[in-house]
């Protein structure tokens, strides 16, 4: 017993129950150019805002006030909570270590007639003790008047001094 099925043309047609999204062209099934451009614009705007935010935070973290010792002492503890850099020279005979095995150092910096107590925990460069070197400390100035340094930068002394300040040929006979 064979049963024959006869299918008509109306039985073969597909009728979708859902409408395609508005950005899909019903003829080609592709998204429209306007929608792709809108998505690209939104992604670009998000990327631009994120880049701006990261640039702003990086700039804020990298910036700090650069003062001399006398400027910092004059301002007092008002400058204490900022990321600071302070420039001065080491006051002779004021450098001390906490103990022989410790890297914590206490010393005085001076500039413009003012002096400031400072601390640094770490190894110091050799030029730190040169009387002609300028020392730049990075860190914070506490309400107790002590500068807690977390970075030390030494500016090398000038290679060229005027003859009035220093004459390297004083000990050489017949040198003019």
Structural features, described:
- This protein is an alpha+beta fold.
- The protein has two domains: 24-63; 65-155, Nucleic acid-binding proteins (OB fold (Dihydrolipoamide Acetyltransferase, E2P)).
- Helices cover 21% and strands 27% of the residues.
- The chain is built from two helices and seven strands; from the N terminus they run αβαββββββ.
- The protein has helices at residues 33-62, 69-75, and strands spanning 65-68, 84-90, 96-97, 104-111, 114-121, 134-141, 146-155.
- It has a five-stranded mixed beta barrel with strand order 2-4-5-7-6.
- A hairpin with a 6-residue loop joins strand 3 and strand 4.
Secondary-structure content class = alpha+beta
Largest sheet: 5 strands, mixed, barrel
Q: What is the CATH architecture term of the largest domain?
A: Beta Barrel
Using the coordinates above, name the CATH class of the largest domain. Answer: Mainly Beta
Share of helical residues: 10-25%
> What coarse outline follows from CA principal-axis ratios?
rod-shaped
User: Strand-residue fraction?
Assistant: 25-35%
Query: What is the name of the CATH superfamily of the largest domain?
Result: Nucleic acid-binding proteins
Could you give the distance between the termini?
133 Å
Radius of gyration: 37 Å
Number of strands: 7
